[in-house]
Amino acid sequence: MMAEMIGSEHGITDHDLKDIKPVASAYVKNMKEERSAGKLQFLDLPYNKKTVEEVLKTVTSIKGKFRNLVVVGIGGSALGNIAIHTAMNHPFHNLLTDVERNNIPRIFVLDNIDPDRFSGLLDIVTPGETLFNFITKSGTTVETMSQFLIITKLLQNKLGNNYREHVITTTDEKKGTLRAITKHEGFKSFTIPAGVGGRYSVLTPVGLFSAAMGGVDISELLDGAAHMDAACQSDNLWENPALMGAVLSFLSHRKKGKNIFVTMPYSNALSGVSDWFCQLWAESLGKRFSLNKEIVHTGSTPIKAIGVVDQHSQLQLYMEGPYDKVITFWVIKRFNKNVPIANENTIENELIYLKGHSLNDLFNAEFEGTRLALAEERRPNCTLSLDELSAFNLGQLFCLYELQTAFAGKFYNVNAFDQPGVEVGKINAFAMLGKKGFEQREKEINIRLQKTQKKYHI
Known about the structure:
The protein is α/β, with parallel strands linked by helices. It folds into 3 domains: 210 residues, Glucose-6-phosphate isomerase like protein, domain 1 (Rossmann fold), CATH 3.40.50; 176 residues, Rossmann fold; 31 residues, no CATH class. It contains 16 helices and 11 strands. 47% of the residues lie in helices and 14% in strands. Helix 3 packs across helix 8 and helix 10 crosses helix 14.
């Protein structure tokens, strides 16, 4: 990303960094003040040992009772769960036998209300063998609560009064419909801290419960986050990776016109983390109004790519398309497996160059070749390297990008912790479903649809 590698037209110069340093230092100080005032509660999560104890106590009490764990949530209530499960467990975890999984339950995440997918999952899990974890911060999320109504009715029909043992909720401590139902029915339950938004909640019981059920060392996960938090306290750009990440992305956007932020892990295991980051970045920074109430329509667009898969799809655009992208590679130095390609006695002559190599070597060569090719075309890119994919390092990743996003919110001068644009679509959906109190909006929608709707029959 630096000008010394790709030139000053597209790369960040030392002068750019020098100019922004006073502002960056001020933002570090401001973040520390906000944290002390209790305004950044997501940063306290790595140190909450009580939550770890509570989660592990529950997991221990139900160990071996369920063959399946189904997490029901959407957005921040689902993506962190998927990220941890994809990163930490066997890539085909749910296809392993019970013995091969060490009796760890199969883990499914219902993160959408697609009727066929929803019904399809219920086709393959036996209610008596399944624990359902319903997650919604507000306790009223319509997608989650609609599935709650269907699933709890199914459980009641199949299991009678014992159905309560197959439900665990994760929601606000006091507010919301799900909390009220939980109290009435006596469901086991976890609390989401009031000051932690959904997309920053992966290190609360939102993500920790399914992680622990899946055999992940959640103490290590939090220790990794705490380690990264400590590493991001300096106002020196070169000693604070989250601050530097925010600065580079912001300058690339505002000074160099790069408004698309691609994360490209060379690891299928990190694909879920990339999805998690896309929500975090987009929902935090894509805003109409600045903190000064000025209309700014700002933010950069996060895109997910996977190495080497997307070398054969998106890379053509990144190499020869508009100069509007920054690409961040995520690489793992040591994979769990080393896979030799072929025995030298059986290899064909035209493939002799693969002699003595492994899939690991090929993976790394394709990564190095891709980032070099992009640099030669003056395409900004940088690399985040992990020595291995562990719970500790995954915790570091979560904390790094949450902090980077919070810092970026300072540079963009927007509220990185709300999502007002999401609410309009919800209001329209409520009106179209006939929810009480939305009658006027329903009339407005019907008038608008009559004017604008066109149908094409194919």
